[in-house]
C-alpha cells in the first residue's frame, strides 16, 4: 500500500501546480532508502515515478534523462546510508541529495547538450544558469522530506505508544 501511495504522490507533485522543481520525488527517494526494507523496491519507486511522468511529459535526450535517474538512485543510497541515524539526519541528507542532483544533472547538460561550450567557462555558465532552479529544488526536497519522515515517525511513535499488535505488519524494526 505504501509503495503505491508514494508513487501516486510523487507522480502528482510533478503535475499539480507547483513552483518549478518543487516536487516530492527527491524526498520519496530518500524516504524509500531509509524506511523500506526491500531495497530493490526502494530504488524502483522513484524510477517508476519518473518513467510514468516522463512518459506523459515527454522523454528527452537519453544522457540527460539518465543523469536525472542516476541522481535519484544516489538519493536512495543516501537514505540507506543514514538509516542507522535518527530521522532528522534526513534533512541534511536531503540537502546533499539536492546538491548532488544539481551537480550531476547540470554537468550532464554541459557534457551532452549543445547549449554550452565544453570549456571550464561553459561548465560554470551551465551551473550558473541552473541556480534559479536549485532554490526551489532545495525547498521542495526539504519540505517533502520533513513531511514524509515526520508522518512516518509519528506513525511509529503512536504504534509503539499504543502497543498496536499488528505493528510488525506495518513496521519491521521501526521501518516500513
Structure explained in plain terms:
This protein is mostly helical and 176 residues long. The mean pLDDT is 89. It has seven helices and no strands. The protein has one domain (2-170). The radius of gyration is 17 Å and the shape is elongated. It has helices at residues 2-13, 25-35, 39-57, 62-81, 89-112, 120-161, 167-170. Helix content is 75%, strand content 0%. α1 (2-13) runs parallel beside α3 (39-57).
Strand content: under 5%
Show unreliable segments: none
Give the biggest beta sheet.
Answer: none
SSE topology string = HHHHHHH
**Radius of gyration, whole Å:** 17 Å
How many H/I helices? 7
- Helices and strands: which structural class? mainly alpha
The best one-word shape is elongated
Overall helicity: over 70%
Number of strands: 0
When the domains are counted, the total is 1
Amino acid at each position: 500500500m505504501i509503495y503505491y501511495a508514494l508513487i501516486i504522490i510523487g507522480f502528482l507533485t510533478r503535475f499539480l501546480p507547483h513552483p518549478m522543481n518543487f516536487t516530492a520525488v527527491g524526498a520519496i527517494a530518500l524516504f524509500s532508502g531509509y524506511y523500506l526494507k526491500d531495497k530493490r523496491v526502494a530504488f524502483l519507486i522513484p524510477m517508476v515515478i519518473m518513467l510514468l511522468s516522463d512518459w506523459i511529459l515527454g522523454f528527452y535526450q537519453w544522457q540527460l534523462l539518465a543523469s536525472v535517474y542516476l541522481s535519484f538512485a544516489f538519493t536512495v543510497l543516501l537514505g540507506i546510508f543514514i538509516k542507522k541515524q535518527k530521522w532528522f539526519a534526513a534533512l541534511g541528507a536531503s540537502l546533499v541529495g539536492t546538491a548532488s542532483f544539481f551537480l550531476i544533472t547540470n554537468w550532464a547538460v554541459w557534457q551532452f547538450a549543445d547549449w554550452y561550450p565544453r570549456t571550464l567557462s561553459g561548465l560554470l555558465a551551465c551551473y550558473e544558469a541552473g541556480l534559479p532552479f536549485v532554490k526551489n529544488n532545495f525547498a521542495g526536497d526539504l519540505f517533502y522530506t520533513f513531511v514524509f519522515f515526520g508522518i512516518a515517525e509519528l506513525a511509529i511513535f503512536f504504534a509503539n505508544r499504543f502497543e498496536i499488535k499488528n505493528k510488525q505488519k506495518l513496521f519491521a524494526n521501526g521501518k516500513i
